[in-house]
Amino acid sequence: MSIAALAPSYIRAISPYLPGKPITQLAREMGIPVDSIVKLASNENPLGMSPKARAALEQAIADLSRYPDQFELSRAISDRYGIGMDRVVLGNGSNDLLDLAARVFLAPGRSSVFSQHAFAVYPLATMSAGGECIQVPAKEFGHDLAAMRAAIRPDTSIVWIANPNNPTGTFLPYAQVRAFLQALPENVLVVLDEAYNEYLPPALREDTLAWLAEFPNLVITRTFSKVYGMAGLRVGYALASAEIVDLMNRVRQPFNVNNLALAAAIGALDDHVFLAESFQLNRRGVEQIVAGLKRLGLEHIPAHGNFVTFRAGDAAGVNQRLLKQGIIVRPLANYGMPQHLRVTIGLETENARFLEALEKSL
Ligand SMILES: *Cc1c(COP(=O)(O)O)cnc(C)c1O
């Protein structure tokens, strides 16, 4: 008998997450010096983290022998949004929170609904909890909310919505999301994943946190990995009703967010100068990349985050030729998009190097 047979079949059916290729791995594989590699593959902030976060982190190094205390970051988030502390859960990245929601509300015999081409963690979290995945065909690469509504079964307990979505960059106008929530039975949870919320132009924004008062079945997740530039520290938060938060806290590891991440997140939260700078850099970068793609005659999906997804025809071949020139982007075959590549917005010079290398790769 193989040991693997001991694992439940739903665990054995999981395909592992495929991360963006690390810089050090490409350096080893191709013998390219680390310094000359440009990684635009994981939607990281090219400015790094806020100087205030870094200063707070450096101070926190003195206290690493102590177990973490989540109080201060929870309070800072609660103060910032005017939401009770009993409605905040902290996660080791927002990925952790998606997993907690799945462990609380899914089990064998239950299902979750998500869109084709949506974030890869939704099926992972669902299957880890023994739930069944209901994947709904996308509409123009985005979520088709009417079809998702129709796909809900009596055994469905979670609907996952990423807005904006990764890896497509598509965005659902908030009026549609709100109408979806209003029409949904209260015994189905919606996890609204807003990892790219801070990159939305002001005209598209909406105070979704205010919806929490109205919808007791809503969970909103945010992260310090994207605009805050702290992907390597792993910290995110979820906001939901006190009842949901209580349940998520029961399955949460007591010390799931480490001291350095907590300190840096507190430092980062209100660094509005850094956030504005990151937002502006991204806006200019999207324009630069989109103009470059148009010049090369390549079609792209309208971008709403810090990345652009474009059709490259033989995307696997183009990706290989980009790698040889030291440029790492994200191939999307495992997202059911074998002709597309996703490029993260970098510094102006990095975007320019990507476009130059892309031209040579076509
Ligand atoms: C990056 C991302 C996340 C969060 O990642 P963490 O680093 O775990 O916070 C969540 N959802 C989407 C759609 C993402 O792209």
Please tell me about this protein's structure.
The protein is α/β, with parallel strands linked by helices and 362 residues long. It folds into two domains: 17-48 and 273-361, Aspartate Aminotransferase, domain 1, CATH 3.90.1150.10; 51-269, Aspartate Aminotransferase, domain 2 (3-Layer(aba) Sandwich), CATH 3.40.640.10. It is 38% helix and 15% strand. It contains 13 helices and 13 strands. The protein has helices spanning 9-12, 23-30, 51-60, 71-81, 94-105, 121-128, 145-151, 174-183, 242-251, 259-269, 272-295, 315-324, 348-361; strands at 38-39, 88-91, 111-115, 132-136, 156-162, 189-193, 218-223, 236-239, 300-301, 307-311, 327-328, 330-331, 340-344. Strands 2-8-7-6-5-3-4 form a seven-stranded mixed β-sheet, sandwiched between helices. Strand 9 (300-301) and strand 10 form a beta hairpin. Helix 4 runs parallel beside helix 10 (259-269), helix 5 (94-105) packs across helix 9 (242-251) and helix 11 runs parallel beside helix 13 (348-361). The longest helix is centred in the last third of the chain and has 24 residues, at 272-295. It starts with 8 loop residues before the first helix and ends with a helix. Pyridoxal-5'-phosphate binds at residues 43, 93-95, 119, 162, 166, 193, 195, 223, 225-226, 231, 236.
